[in-house]
Write a structure and sequence with these properties.
The chain is mainly beta. It has helices spanning about 5-20, 45-50, 200-210, 495-500; strands at about 55-70, 75-80, 90-95, 95-105, 115, 140-145, 150-155, 170-175, 185-190, 245, 250, 260-265, 270-275, 280-290, 295-300, 305-310, 310-320, 320-325, 330-335, 340-345, 350-360, 400-405, 415, 425-430, 435-440, 450, 455-460, 465, 470, 475-480, 490-495, 505-510. Bound molecules: CU-O-CU linkage and copper (II) ion. The site of CU-O-CU linkage has 10 residues, from strand 5 and strand 31.
């Protein structure tokens, strides 16, 4: 495995050599070793953090714990931050410093990743890469400057913990907010099975057997990573979902069978609600915290004006519905009508939905399975969006192009990049100051939401800025970014089961560049 101490030592040594005028010595013809990269807590990373000139410090405390929580008349045993689902929202302003303490009261190592934030590499929360895992019973302090306003979120980066209840919104306010609105509502979407049909670790074990998995019934008794003894899947079936189809997603919609889809931690029969006055201009911040589900979202009786995706502003576009992949965020503005309106999150291709309500007047609450017509109206695509103002990257030819072929399939559950599983010793080199292009060629029969840590790329051809983007089957998505945040960064599929199976890799800044 990856030894951080060795990693840091060699990393600092390489940076020191470069600083004293020595040339970087490549250890192989075309494959630099760990010591050739800017290490997560190196002097260069510290210098870039200092240049962010963080202002006021905002403190937060997160306790990752094993709890029983109420999804709305359904109690489940799961893992959460502080017994709440979603976890308590963290809110600060761009330019401020977040000082967050994590306490680990789980039964496994953990850490926190701050999804979408351009932060110092050693606060990125990837265990065995940017920090030591936080052991059971220990605490860990994160401290980093947040420069970019927007809608972000946080979750663990260990195994499939994200598919439990470990997630919370991270909202960064703009001190010069250009939008005018009266109120705000954060809407977090999730697919749920933990404590109902099994645990995410059991799901991963079953999926890892591939579609020949039915031959391996003996796997049922093996002790898992979570220290539990696996029991067979739900009675008469399995966790594997077959036949979930979506035209929007180019075919196969997902791998995993979920009994519930949650909006703000509530099942559809006991929905969360926003209560306000008719005529309120409401900013809704959508976050997809699911593990294997894209959501198609609409607010009955309303059209939405899309203002941001993944924290960055877009030129406003009016739409009936949104398609949100795992890890993606959208901000919209709506002017509320008078009555009771369903906010429906359709589990795309899975024939089920999550629900919340908007109530501004009298009226009966709609049925839990309501399907407002907006769901089949206009759905914005990346091509319909363009970056607003300073969100547009300068036009520049890429200095470097990296080809990442999305590979693997359900048969052997061998998801990866370029035909290989994640290997912490394989790092794609980039240099500080470069414009880097990733060519994400999806050769599989499934869609994948690909996420890059520490940067927000521009999607060709519209230039819309995102940190997580859906790549449909048999398509290639080009994304460009400026290499301005030195360190070693993950890029991976945000389907947590695909990522754990191996669809993750690393980009590293060469030291002395
Ligand atoms: Cu939200 Cu590495 O991911
Ligand atoms: Cu994937």
């Amino acid at each position: 495995m990856f030894d951080r101490r060795t990693f840091l030592r060699t990393g600092i040594a390489a940076a020191g050599t470069a600083a004293s005028g020595g040339l970087l010595v490549a250890c192989g013809a075309d494959s630099p070793g760990r010591g050739d990269f800017v290490a997560p807590d190196s002097a260069r990373v510290h210098a870039v953090e200092r240049a962010r000139h963080g202002g006021r410090t905002v403190s937060a405390r997160l306790v990752a714990s094993r709890d029983t929580i109420d999804l709305g008349g359904r109690a489940v045993a799961t893992w959460t931050y502080g017994g709440r689902l979603p976890g308590q929202q963290i809110r600060l302003r761009a330019g401020e410093i977040l000082a967050a303490t994590l306490r680990n009261d789980l039964a496994a190592d953990t850490s926190i990743h701050w999804h979408g934030i351009t932060l110092r590499n050693d606060a990125d929360g990837v265990p065995d890469l940017t920090q030591e895992p936080v052991r059971v019973g220990n605490t860990y302090d994160y401290r980093f400057t947040v420069t970019q306003p927007g809608t972000y979120w946080l979750h663990p980066h260990s195994g499939v913990q994200l598919d439990r209840g470990l997630y919370a919104p991270l909202i960064v306010e703009d001190p010069h907010e250009p939008l005018r609105y009266d109120d705000e509502w954060v809407v977090v979407l999730d697919d749920w099975l933990d404590g109902v049909t099994g645990t995410p670790d059991q799901v991963l074990r079953e999926l890892s057997n591939g579609m020949g998995g039915m031959d391996h019934g003996d796997m049922g008794g093996m002790p898992g990573m979570d220290g539990e003894t696996a029991s067979p899947g739900p009675a008469g079936g399995s966790h594997m979902l077959m036949g979930a189809k979506s035209d929007l997603l180019g075919g196969d919609a997902g791998d995993v069978r979920y009994p519930y889809f949650l909006v703000n931690g509530r099942i559809a029969t006991a929905p969360d609600r926003y209560t306000g006055k008719p005529g309120t201009r409401l900013r809704i911040r959508f976050i997809n915290a699911g593990a294997d589900t894209a959501f198609r979202v609409a607010l009955g009786g309303h059209r939405m004006s899309v203002t941001h995706t993944d924290g960055y502003p877009v030129k406003p576009v009016t739409t009936d519905a949104l398609l949100i992949g795992m890890g993606e965020r959208y901000d919209v503005l709506v002017t509320l009508g008078d009555g009771v309106f369903p906010l429906v999150a359709l589990a795309e291709g899975k024939r089920a939905n999550g629900l919340a309500l908007v109530r501004t007047g009298a009226g009966r609450a709609p049925d839990a399975k309501v399907r407002p017509k907006q769901l089949s109206g206009r759905i914005v695509s990346y091509r319909d969006l363009s970056p607003a103002g300073e969100a547009r990257l300068s036009s520049k030819k890429p200095d470097r192009t990296i080809d990442l072929k999305l590979t693997g399939g359900m048969m052997h559950y061998d998801w990866g990049f370029n035909g290989r599983k994640y290997d912490p010793n394989r790092i794609e080199p980039i240099r500080e100051g470069e414009r880097v292009r990733l060519r994400l060629a999806n050769t599989t029969t499934m869609w994948h939401p690909i996420h890059l840590h520490g940067h927000t790329f521009a999607v060709a051809d519209s230039g819309v800025r995102k940190d997580t983007a859906i790549v449909l089957p048999n398509t290639t998505l080009r994304v460009d970014f400026d290499a301005d945040n030195p360190g070693i960064w993950m890029t991976h599929c945000h389907n947590v089961y695909h990522a754990e199976a191996g669809m993750m890799t690393l980009l590293g800044y060469l030291a002395g560049s």
